[in-house]
Specification:
Order of helices and strands: EEHEHHEEHHHH
Helix content: 40-55%
Distance between the termini: 26 Å
Shape: globular
Number of domains: 2
Structural class: alpha/beta
Low-confidence stretches: none
CATH architecture of the largest domain: 2-Layer Sandwich
CATH superfamily of the largest domain: Ribonuclease H-like superfamily/Ribonuclease H
CATH topology of the largest domain: Nucleotidyltransferase, domain 5
Strand order of the largest sheet: 3-2-1-4-5
Largest sheet: 5 strands, mixed
Number of helices: 7
Number of strands: 5
Length: 220
């Protein structure tokens, strides 16, 4: 029986934070209900399904930071995170289905499925895993930059977030190559003075999220 892997990303359109992809292999006759695009599922229910997925799925996660996104662009960063997620699976699948479009990489033979997160259970599961993981990370980052309310907006361009961006200028985890972030960059000298302290806190967050992934049996 061929193993089917579903792949999806979360955070591609965000103004801050990483892009996170998940790759998920579900067993045959998995019995999960409510699988669909993670954005269409209420937060509480999404978490419930997430923990159900953890019970029996093979899961890999790939995370690409805002700094790398600025270096290689969001499209390449998305492909990179997806490739990392597949590489972090315990078993290499025979078929890899990706939400949207195939990944242009010689490492894997992938097939894109438009609106796959609403049609293919494995892609829906990957959407849910990626969404829960990214939401968790953005909530952990929030106390470092409370003025942006990342716990609520997850880095997306809400009215509150955009107003805060204008007032406080971009922070360490903003994507500085994105509009309108590029128009609100901090003075370099002021930014460097704060960067060391923020980096220390972000390193602690990175260790904490890694421990959380490990406790859930998720490879990244």
């Amino acid at each position: 029986m061929n193993k089917i892997c579903g792949v999806d990303e979360v955070g591609r359109g965000s103004l801050a934070g990483p892009v996170i992809s998940a790759a998920v292999i579900l067993p045959k006759n998995h019995g999960l209900s409510g699988l669909t695009d993670s954005k269409k599922i209420p937060s509480k229910k999404r978490k419930e399904i997430f923990f159900e997925i953890l019970n029996f799925a093979d899961i890999g996660v790939g995370i690409v930071s805002s700094r790398v996104i600025d270096k290689i662009n969001i499209l390449q960063a998305t492909y990179k995170s997806m490739t990392m997620a597949i590489e972090n699976l315990d078993d290499l699948p025979q078929k890899i289905l990706v939400d949207g479009f195939a990944i242009p990489t010689p490492k894997f033979d992938t097939e894109g499925v438009i609106k796959g997160d609403q049609k293919i259970d494995e892609i829906s599961a990957a959407s849910i895993v990626a969404k829960v993981c990214r939401d968790k990370l953005m909530k952990m980052i929030d106390p470092i930059f409370p003025e942006f309310d990342f716990a609520s907006n997850k880095g997306y361009g809400t009215k509150f977030h955009l107003e805060a961006l204008k007032e406080y200028k971009a922070c360490r985890v903003h994507r500085k190559s994105f509009n309108p972030v590029k128009n609100y960059l901090k003075n370099e000298m002021i930014y460097k003075q704060k960067m060391k302290k923020e980096n220390t806190k972000l390193e602690a967050i990175n260790e904490e999220i890694n421990n959380w992934f490990t406790s859930k049996g998720i490879k990244r």
